[in-house]
Amino acid sequence: MFLRTIPSTIPRALASRGLVCRSLSQRKVNWIWATQVSEQNLENKCFNLTPSRCLSFGATSKVYPSWLYRSFQTSRLLCDNIKIVETPPFAESVSEGDVRWDKVVGDAVAEDEVIGEVETDKTSIAITSPVSGVIVEFLVEDGSTVVAGQQLVKIEVTEGAGAKKPAAAPSPPTPKQDAEPAMDVTTPPPTTPPPIPPVPEGPMVVHAAPEIPAQPTQPPAAHVPAPTPAKPPTGPGGIPTRATGTRTEQRVKMSRMRQRIAERLKDAQNVNAMLTTFNEIDMSAVMSMRKKFKEEFQRKHGVKLGFMSAFLKASAHALTEMPVVNAVIDDLEIVYRDYIDISVAVATPKGLVVPVLRNVEAMNFADIERGLGELGQKASLGTLAIEDMDGGTFTVSNGGVFGSLYGTPIINPPQSAILGMHGIFDRPVAVNGKVEIRPMMYVALTYDHRLIDGREAVTFLRQIKSGVEDPYSILLEL
After folding, report:
1. What is the predicted pLDDT for the residue at 27?
2. Member of which family (predicted)?
3. What is the SS3 assignment for 273?
4. Which of 83, 76, 75, 115 is nearest to 99 (CA)?
5. pLDDT at 51
6. DSSP three-state, residue 274
7. Selection from 407, 411, 380, 408 nearest residue 395 by Cα
8. Residues 173-209, buried b or exposed e (16+ Cβ, 10 A)?
9. DSSP character string of 211-250
10. pLDDT tens string 294-353
11. Rounded to an integer, what distance in angstroms lies between the CA atom of residue 277 and that of residue 64?
12. Would you call 449 a catalytic residue per the annotation?
């Protein structure tokens, strides 16, 4: 970019009267207005400064030769190589979050590589690098609270920064130098022999040194530093994974997601009149069906046949028959919903999340298993969005994957009921007057007693029991 300067007499006049530059293009300072230029007797006139060989004024058409002004050329600005990464956009219900960095200053990053994440009270949003380069500076510290659009990190743009550098070729070995200089083979041998040493006149007497008794000495005691206590191993977020017995304490900031979980669970206890009813389910029929059709089911639909599809389908069938369990209290009104969106509790390293499977009443077993697989994969990768967890009219929590015998789940607000599944264990049960060993599961239904009476709750849970113990009745919509 070229820029021509005006004669030395004009800048003083313009600077004293006020100079305003409207725009700067690649090769031209477009319009410069001078309010008063008394030296040239110009008032409220304009002139055009171009990279040509003259300086012309629009009012007087006066021309100045090129030797009266100078020119210079600027190089590419350094800021063109710096890319500033901002906070990713949030959902409408999220206003801020805590940032956590996975990289440090000086690390090379590739395009679209994850360099950190913003943890909100509902999910985590990945921060990716828009270019390949090297991290120059973090504008916010790890753990700081950020808002949407805030500048986070500076990255210097380079070519191929994320690629690994080739290993340097080993340097050739240097020849080892001899300790003694080599003999010059061109030097002639000496012609005269060296002189003979004189012969001693008497025998040589060797005087032995007097013996000095050894003094018993003790080596100085070495300074042994005090053993430092072993630091307990930590996992993601600095959370200890096991106790080492060193009698130390460690304080870790509670994540936003954990804070939100604690707040919602406590609100559920304070608002709802929660009551839990129990029952047990004979899993023989559904296990027999799964064993018989699991290979053909996976071959046709591409997903495995599990137990969750039977429970979700049975829950959707029961919710259709008893819409009060699918309803919710809103102030002084009861909201009855004619759709069934079931939230499925999933345990992740960051906390409990409840992604939603929508319109379960219109799904078959394959659709349910496919939807659960997609949600489970997102939860394990930490890519669940706000939309994946928003809403829900009923929740199913499967504590049986951890070996739970039975428990009382807590309602997921703003819902009115939650079904708790537990482990499958062989137990003796009475079947047609005989004692048999059957695979049994305890189930629990926690409900809001303000809205759902005991009769509806028990009837609802018995319908789920009937649907799981006889899955063909659900398939036949009986």
Report:
1. 36
2. Belongs to the 2-oxoacid dehydrogenase family.
3. coil
4. 115
5. 41
6. strand
7. 411
8. eeeeeeeeeeeeeeeeeeeeeeeeeeeeeeeeeeeee
9. P-PPPP--PPPP--PPPPPPPPPB-GGG-BSS--SS----
10. 899 999 999 999 899 999 999 999 999 999 999 999 989 999 999 999 999 888 777 778
11. 98
12. yes
Is the previous residue joined to 193 through a cis bond, with omega within 30 degrees of 0? no
pLDDT digits (tens, 9 = 90+) for 416-428: 999 999 999 999 9
Nearest by Cα to 31 from 52, 10, 15, 46: 46
Do 445 and 417 meet the contact criterion of CB atoms below 8 Å apart?
Answer: yes
Indicate the pairing of strand 151-157 with strand 82-86: antiparallel
Q: Distance between CA atoms of 222 and 200, rounded to whole angstroms?
A: 54
Question: What is the distance between the alpha carbons of residues 227 and 248, in angstroms, rounded to a whole number?
Answer: 14
**H or E segment at 429?**
strand 417-431
Rounded-to-integer distance, Cα 384 and Cα 399, Å? 21
Establish whether 267 is a catalytic residue: no
CB of 49 closer than 8 Å to CB of 25: no
| Residue pair 344/415 in contact by the 8 Å Cβ criterion | no
Structure-block tokens of residue 161: 């920064």
Quote the pLDDT of residue 197.
59
Q: Residue 161 CB: number of other CB atoms within 10 A? A: 20
Q: What pLDDT is attached to residue 195?
A: 60
Cβ atoms within 10 Å of 471's Cβ, excluding its own: 19
Q: Is 64 helix (H, G, I), strand (E, B) or coil?
A: strand
* Number of Cα atoms under 13 Å in the Cβ half of residue 369: 17
Q: Please choose, from the candidates 373, 368, 376, 366, the residue with its C-alpha nearest in 3D space to the C-alpha of residue 298.
A: 366
Contact 342, 326 (CB under 8 A): no
Catalytic hit among 102, 107, 449, 470: 449
Residues lower than pLDDT 50 in the chain: 1-78, 161-186, 206
C-beta atoms surrounding 114 within 10 Å: 13
Under 8 Å between Cβ of 405 and 420 = no
Which pLDDT score, from 0 to 100, does residue 39 have?
A: 42
Q: Give the CA dihedral 300, 301, 306, 312, nearest 10 degrees.
A: -130
For residue 368, which of 428, 318, 311, 327 has the smallest C-alpha distance? 311
Give the residue from 443, 447, 444, 442 showing the smallest Cα distance to 457. 447
DSSP sequence for 336-400: --SS--EEE-EEETTEEE--EE--GGG--HHHHHHHHHHHHHHHHHT---HHHHS--SEEEEEGG
